[in-house]
Amino acid sequence: MQIAMVLYPRMTALDIVGPYEVLSRLPDASAVFTAAVRGPVLADTGALRLVAESDFSEISSPDLVVVPGGPDVAAQVADAPLHEWLRAVDAGATWMTSVCTGSLILAAAGLLRGRPATSHWMVTERLRAYGASPVSERVVVDGRYATAAGVSAGIDLALTLAARIAGPEVAQTIQLAIEYDPRPPFAAGSPATAPPEVVGFLRANPALVVSS
Amino acid sequence: MQIAMVLYPRMTALDIVGPYEVLSRLPDASAVFTAAVRGPVLADTGALRLVAESDFSEISSPDLVVVPGGPDVAAQVADAPLHEWLRAVDAGATWMTSVCTGSLILAAAGLLRGRPATSHWMVTERLRAYGASPVSERVVVDGRYATAAGVSAGIDLALTLAARIAGPEVAQTIQLAIEYDPRPPFAAGSPATAPPEVVGFLRANPALVVSS
Questions:
Q1: Helix axes of A153-166 and A168-177: crossing angle, nearest 10 degrees
Q2: pLDDT tens digits for B110-129?
Q3: Among B5, B49, B92, B172, which residue has the fewest nearby CB atoms (within 10 Å)?
Q4: Does the annotation count A100 as an active-site position?
């Protein structure tokens, strides 16, 4: 199966590298990084470039698509070439998936109308504007559409997909291979568990996470 | 502070992108991807290139170094240019750190003699050959040397470092920003929790994880 890992300027690298690290290990899987234009794509921090080995025109019938998020939501929901490509490959794909604000891209492309979906906790409600139903869960699967919460949630999404695609034993083998036995040093990964002052700080300074 | 993210051919991308995503968000931090030669560096899967924006000669006094792992351990423990650079920057660095088999690189460079350290669960015992003391923990900090277990453990390492460097509130803010509230779909991330048949399968097929 061909797995298209989408890149675009100012995406968040972990959003796509997390799922890639899991999904590229599926039997008979071929991961390909793709973007509007071939070549290096600069991530949100300005410090890292990931290389798109293909442009969208070369990837016409992927089996699985992963769309990452990033801080520049205004650009993402206005990215017509990406939306057009997503609509074009949607019909033939087995899975259309996203991480973080990537769900706003799928939604803005018109692919999540009437569907439950998740996103980064700071922007989940924005899904409503595109007819999707926001859900505050780590991973939301609705038919062949799967969305994950913020950034690191892409790993959980990918293991969930791996189990659906190749069975739980394969997913568990991949999980053990990447030693995904998380031990966060703090209980601060969601607004429900983080100290109120930490949640309050980010709510008061949303530009630290999303710029628009 | 300058944070040097090391790249080399056939590294595992998540080993370095996990810590990068956390550490690049530290206040006043500047992350730089570096390798023996500038330019795109192909990861272990053959599907992803990360770009080294500098070569080792340009990064002479990083404050923090992160060394990723990868399947080709034989090449890693014989990588003289990398070892020489690590020894050269060690004296001036505040933190020397690794993810996965990256600890074997630090150890082969002579930097972990007499120190407790961890690595990917399948190769931890190999640390002994370089005078280090293998420890089966997610993150091991010994003075200014910090090592993480396999692949995904780099995120836990980086949050641990973030707390030491900038305090727990900053680390928690970063954790909430990347929504690191892991929900693995299986309890299969360590040999202690994975189903015995999954552990047995990887032990019988080590080349799926490390090639030598």
A1: 140
A2: 999 999 999 999 999 999 99
A3: B92
A4: yes
Structure tokens at B12: 């595992």
B44 neighbors B10 (Cβ within 8 angstroms): yes
Cβ-based burial of B52 (10 A; exposed 0-12, middle 13-18, buried ≥19): buried
- Tally the C-alpha atoms within 13 A of residue B201's C-alpha that lie toward its C-beta: 16
Beta strands, E only, chain B: 2-6, 30-35, 39-42, 49-52, 54-55, 64-67, 95-98, 116-117, 133-134, 139-142, 145-148
From the CA of A191, how many Å to the nearest CA of chain B?
Answer: 7
Q: Which CATH superfamily is domain A2-183 in?
A: Class I glutamine amidotransferase (GATase) domain (3.40.50.880)
Would you tell me which residues 4-23 of chain A have a C-beta closer than 8 angstroms to some C-beta of chain B?
5, 12-14, 17-18, 20-21
The predicted structure's pLDDT at residue B212: 58
Q: Count Cβ atoms below 10 Å from residue A141 Cβ, excluding itself.
A: 18
d(CA A87, CA B176): 32
What does the alpha-carbon distance between residue A5 and residue A7 come to, in Å, rounded to a whole number?
7
Q: Which two tokens stand for residue A176?
A: 């053990």
Chain B residues in contact with A159 by the CB 8 A cut-off are 184-186
Give the contacts of B181 (CB within 8 A, at least 6 positions apart): A138, A149, A152, A153, A184, A189, A190, A193
Q: Does A193 touch chain B (CB under 8 A)?
A: yes
Query: CB contact, 8 Å: A194 with chain B?
Result: yes
Q: What confidence tens digit (pLDDT) does each residue in A88-138 have?
A: 999 999 999 999 999 999 999 999 999 999 999 999 999 999 999 999 999
- Whether residues A150 and B48 touch (CB distance < 8 A) is answered with no
Given a cut of 80, is residue B156 above it in pLDDT?
A: yes
Low pLDDT (below 70) residues in chain A:
212
Domain ranges for chain A: 2-183
The answer to whether A92 and A61 are in contact (CB under 8 A) is yes
